[in-house]
Amino acid sequence: MRLAFILGEIGSGLRRNLSMVISVVLVTFVSLTFVGAAGMLQMQINQMKGYWYDKVQVAIFLCNESSTSAGCASGAVTDEQRENLGKMLESPAVKQYISDFQFESQAEAFQHFKDQFSNSPIVDSVTQDQLPASFRINMKDPEKYQIISETFSSQPGVETVSDQRQVLERIFVWMNGASVVAMGIAVVMIVCAVLLITTTIRLSAFSRRRETGIMRLVGASKTVIQLPFILEGVIAAVVGALLASGTLWLVTLWLNGDLSRQFLNTPFISSAQVLVVAPVLIALGGGLAGIASLLTLRRYLKV
Predict the structure, then answer these.
(1) CA 28 – CA 125 distance, rounded (Å)
(2) N or C: which end of the chain has fewer CB within 10 A?
(3) What's the mean pLDDT in 201-207?
(4) Contacts of 81 by beta carbon, 8 Å cutoff, 6+ apart
(5) Exposure class string for 26-50: b at 16+ Cβ within 10 A, else e
(6) How far is CA 222 from its chain centroid?
(7) Crossing angle of the two packed helices 274-300 and 222-254, in degrees rounded to 10
(8) Mean pLDDT in residue range 128-134
């Protein structure tokens, strides 16, 4: 009887404040979508880091005729200097840090440049002599890049030592910034959702003040009186959380469908990872709604 009464009160409250309940669902949906998007974006960043950091190369660029760095004051790299650099890469002191390396000539560098910028007019303004030859090194541990840099930067014939990870770091910084912005928007929207939930509960409690007064007179417990109001807010928030989880799941399907076919070398998070985020969103939405409802009732519904 008590359970049937509570369920009846919940249904009555949801019908009386249907427009406000829909508003709570929508605001919770938007706010938790931003929360989930921020979390999944961080997962994507971590997955991309793990994938790309194992594939980045360290490049030792050699001096050419157009080099202007201080290390190339004596002119273009000589055959003897290039051979010495190759021997250093083969030496036990250096080889323990690298898995393999390849030499890329100016002709090969020019061909790669033309392939990469085939649709750009910049190809017509660059000549083979302007591009440096280089040693391309695959590291066993990308974190040990500094050892290669310190060893080869001051060697004759070396213009500069470059780590591709530095370029990736700039990309990841922007992605982390986007994650922070998404989380900031989510916090604002969550505050709006909490305020809307408290308003909904206040209106529901006010519209049913006569029923609650009668229940107090007949000796109903505080839990029986307050529970329907609390569950109204929780149900609306959980529905919003479920909608947010479904939206994120659809986004991952798109990432692993159309987008993954366009970016074959980029590892995207899978839809299974939504199963990690969804329970957090549901617990967050339901928990905030329950706490907001309880605090509102303590103030506006004296039992």
Answers:
(1) 54
(2) N
(3) 69
(4) 62, 155, 156, 157
(5) bbbbbbbbbbbbbbbbbbbbebbee
(6) 44
(7) 150
(8) 86
